[in-house]
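Task: complex structure prediction.
Instruction: return structure tokens for all chains below.
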Amino acid sequence: MNIGIIGLGLMGGSFSKALKKYSICDKVYGYARTPKTIEKILELDLVDRLLPLDELKKECDIIVLAIPVDSIIGLMDDLKDVDDNTTIIDMGSTKEIIVKNIPQEIRKNFVAAHPMTGTEKFGPEAAIDYLYEGKAVVLCDLEENDELHKQRAIDIFQQIGMRIIYMNSKDHDIHACYMSHLPHAISYSLANTVMNHEDPRSIIALAAGGFKDMSRIAKSSPDMWTDIFRQNRNNLLKSIDLFEENMKDVRQMIEKEDYKSLKEWMKKANTLHEIL
Ligand SMILES: NC(=O)C1=CN([C@@H]2O[C@H](COP(=O)(O)OP(=O)(O)OC[C@H]3O[C@@H](n4cnc5c(N)ncnc54)[C@H](O)[C@@H]3O)[C@@H](O)[C@H]2O)C=CC1
Ligand SMILES: O=C(O)C(=O)Cc1ccc(O)cc1
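Output:
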């Protein structure tokens, strides 16, 4: 079995490393567009060979899309002519709009997946060993898939050490919003708030663990996250409203010097870590 990966950045490059580590397939092929990325992928030896898209479609039993969520939709038309036995798996962070855009010709082949693991780094150099091990992957709307494609996706993620969670794409986007997309919006906001107020020398001299923890994901790729925020816009707007309510609450408690309520509010937040 051959597997083709379109997009060899953090997710695609790390996936290739996992496939090789567990000897899951005969060959891992890749497709990349820009000369600079191609050069990096070859230098890092991330795949057995890079192929033009048409060749990759012919050579591979499974094609993995590890590109930004709008690019996944943009590429779908080029995949309409794959063989009935070719499985397509996307790794996008959003699912509802992607699923809605899958052309009918490949709906049974196309498995919508979201690995719940990653880092703030991007590009081929960001690819790491063990990114997927022990982590969860959400598979969405599997009732729309042929048994062959569904089972292949389940098998491959389990073989690289992942736990499978099943969900419909609408619910997925709501949960992904609160667990991932809202935290990224908050981290970008915090980074900009602090940079607007503090000069770089103070930031270097004074940044402590808490600020570094909360701003780490503000280093994430603006290309990737603009697409995600656009695709999950409605859920994100609602979650920002709810977050603003909490900011208003804390503001009011401080303004009124209501430290008793403030402490209770903080104690409630502490309980999150009994779950995590
Ligand atoms: N970064 C993360 O932690 C996670 C990302 N994801 C999703 O995985 C996907 C990939 O993300 P990353 O690997 O982090 O991004 P990345 O930026 O590290 O890699 C994406 C690669 O795809 C290439 N690319 C973009 N459009 C392309 C196209 N049309 N054809 C061929 N190559 C193309 C880019 O040049 C880049 O090398 C995204 O859909 C993202 O939402 C999912 C879970 C975690
Ligand atoms: O770096 C982190 O902590 C992340 O949260 C990475 C991440 C980014 C996007 C996803 O869809 C899932 C995970």
